[in-house]
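Batch job 17 of 40 flagged for manual review because the log was empty.
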Amino acid sequence: MGAFGNPAIIEESEKRYMEKRKLMIIIGTVAVILVGVLLLFLFMREEEEEPTIPDEPTTITIEESGVTLSDESYDEVIIAASVGDGEVTLTNMTITTLIVQGGGKESIKIENSKIDKIISEREDDLGVRILFVGNNEIGEIEIRYYTILESEDESNDIKKIVVASPVDKLTILELRSIKSALLELKTETELVKMGETIITEIIDHYKVTVTFNTDGGTEIESLVIKKGTAIEKPEDPTKEGYDFVEWQLNGETFDFEELVTKDITLRAIYKEKTTTTPSPTPSPTPSPTPDPTPTETYTIQTENQVGSPAVIVRVFRNGTQVNATEVQDASGNTLGIKTDIGEITVNDTLVPLIKKARLANGTIVEIN
């Protein structure tokens, strides 16, 4: 029997064939895995090397009345002055900065939106009204000119309101049912609060504090007043064994008609009480003729208030403003008193009737 007919040889041959086949399968599998790993490496490298193109900042300018934006996101939205007294509505918006240059009192309506910062800067004296409806989340509102902020419900969250006028001018801010954690007044502000307005904290950089150092006498509470106004003289302090003489500022007699422009501390000055022995009555001697008392002339000046029939009345003595608390007609009837903004306000129709004024020291003077 030949070699090809030998069963042992045939079996050995088949065994070697199967081993070679298994080896080829293993080599093929490893090759496929290596190629896959290489391709994955090259793909990831291309992904890493591909430059990232930053998103372009998105800005939109609204230039006419009657525009409504909804369900969009912008880095900056500008409501231009050309909107005038018209209306703009923002609904379900996400905005980084909203700049309000136009829009009247009928108004800029913000509904169910998230806005990081609002800047109100309509420059004329007509003012702009910003109305919050629904559930809004507002980071900061910067007030530069006359603005009305109003909320229709309690679900509006305003973190901070800042009044910072770029000009040396009184800024009017009306808050109507507004709730805010912080109100910061960086410039002179006339604040009008209406409805259920709640401000957790107010920081006023335009107010000054007057402190009274009674030097061991009866205590007198400090006063916080509007910068640039005068204070009324407090009741004289008492100190055992001493008589009160006067109040001094930096070693000099303080004039209570002086306008206070910064924080000050007034110090009480006393003299020690002494016991005197009565002396004989001297013979009368002729008194010299006193010098004539200088003539004092009191006048008033008025200042209109935007959107109000009331005017501010200020009293002047020989051209210099003095601290007055009340103005009266010729019969002594009160026409206007000093309000919590530190000014006397009077209906403009009553101004011609002003004939008298009461000064801070209680003196009634005639108005020329």
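Reviewer: the log was empty due to a logging misconfiguration, but the result itself is present. The chain has a mean pLDDT of 87. Unflagging and moving on to job 18.
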